[in-house]
Amino acid sequence: MNTPRLWSAAAALVLLVVAFAATTMHARGVETRYVHTLAPQMFPQKTLGIALQRAAFRQPDLLPLYGSSDVNVPNAHHASALFREYPTGFTVFPVGSIGSSSLNWVQALAAVGPDLYGKKVAVSVPVKAFMDEAVDRHAYAANFSPLHASALAFSTRLSFALKQRAARRMLQFPATVANDALLRFALERLADGSWGSRTLYYASLPLGTLHNAVLRLRDHWETLGFLRAQRGLRTVLPQPAPLDWTELMRRAVQEARGKATHNVFGFGDDFWAAHAPEIVRQKGMYASQATQPDVERGAEWTDFDLLLQVVRALGGEPLILSIPLNGAYYDYLGVPAATRHAYYERLRQLAKAHEVQVVDYAEYDSDKYFSVDAGMHLSAEGWVYYDYALDAFFHDRTLAGSE
Questions:
Q1: How far is the C-alpha of 172 from the C-alpha of 100, rounded, in Å?
Q2: Which percentage of the chain shows pLDDT scores above 70?
Q3: Could you tell me the strand order of the sheet in which 91-95 lies?
Q4: Is pLDDT of 403 > 60?
Q5: What is the largest CA-CA distance in the chain?
């Protein structure tokens, strides 16, 4: 045995580990320094990476808020705007993009891993997704993160059974894992679950752990690159101030109604001007299929249940927020009140089963000013309702309308 070569290899390995640890520590320090400044911003590295999300969970004054396009549309009453200067001691850290759904968040929160333990997290569910039988493949793929997926597949904090459920869903979108042989191998072994597949999965776990370490290091490096490219990043100084929720709501309602004057659905005038002909053609489009069983068998329910299981397994404390269905518009589409009620009831049942707080605003089903368009994006009024719930959740106050 060539002892000098062994010593050289060992020394090289030690240097590699030290360099890895030093780079990670440096990156985490920089990310912590800027995570508050980046909190209100929406950009791919924030959503598809994990370094900034983990940094946000480690801060006592940041509340991660996962959502879809609803958290991306600018609004003067958006939680990022209202809480920007930490008037009540915190601000939100929104995560998500157009088309994000429960299965995307399952993987993202699995990647957050131990940083989720004992921490609060809010999720604004994609209401429209529950009305469809299948998850939009293109939207899921656009929000797919190999880093998140691999973190879930090789997680040592989630049970085999939970990872198996996730793997079976993820493999229903084969294009997203087609180019990652190790990830695909792990997911297929998890999904199969036989004795032989379990053995092969556990045999691949060390390699998967190493693979995840490399992916996390690359994520840190790309995050540092993003930060270096920014100019004039400034820290927001907290400005404690009491919030007059009655006055905020009064102004928000006035604004929402003032911007929706040309249609019976309460849609914003700009949206109506651009989409009126399309909306006219939608009359009764769901009449033949909008029944309670149709709503209850949508694939999004499976993924949402999985999401709640993952958050709970990792020790997180979730709040689920759901924009109310615009009753006037859904009546027009052919989705009756009874079917809409089935959605709210199913949401509450799942939340109760996992001992999770949910605010579904079902009592505002007939309030056409809660959202601004057919995509169920919050109006000024809707955002103030969300803001109030988020503030109450962060400060452990009783949530009105919660289950």
A1: 16
A2: 91
A3: 91-95, 62-66, 120-124, 317-321, 357-359
A4: no
A5: 85
Per-residue pLDDT tens over the stretch 209-251: 999 999 999 999 999 999 989 887 887 888 999 999 999 999 9
pLDDT band at 388 (very low <50, low <70, confident <90, very high): very high
- Report residue 162's pLDDT band, with 50, 70 and 90 as the boundaries: very high
The helix/strand/coil state of 397 is coil
- Determine the Cα angle at 271 with ends 266 and 276, to 5°: 85
Query: Any idea where the domains of the chain sit in the sequence?
Result: 40-151+232-394
Distance CA 325, CA 127 (A): 8
Interval 73-90: pLDDT, tens: 889 999 999 999 999 999
Residue keyed to tokens 């505002």: 364
User: Residue 91, SS3?
Assistant: strand
> Would you give the DSSP letter of residue 376?
-
345 near 309, Cβ under 8 Å?
no
Q: Which tokens in the block code for residue 351?
A: 């939340």
Number of H helices, E strands in the chain: 17, 5
CATH class of 40-151+232-394: alpha beta
Instruction: Let me know: does 354 contact 308? Beta carbons within 8 Å.
Output: yes
Query: Phi/psi class of residue 101: alpha, beta or left (left: φ > 0; alpha: ψ in -120 to 50)?
Result: beta
> What is the distance between the alpha carbons of residues 235 and 283, in angstroms, rounded to a whole number?
49
User: What does the alpha-carbon distance between residue 16 and residue 209 come to, in Å, rounded to a whole number?
Assistant: 16
Tokens of 53: 């999300």
* The predicted structure's pLDDT at residue 2: 60
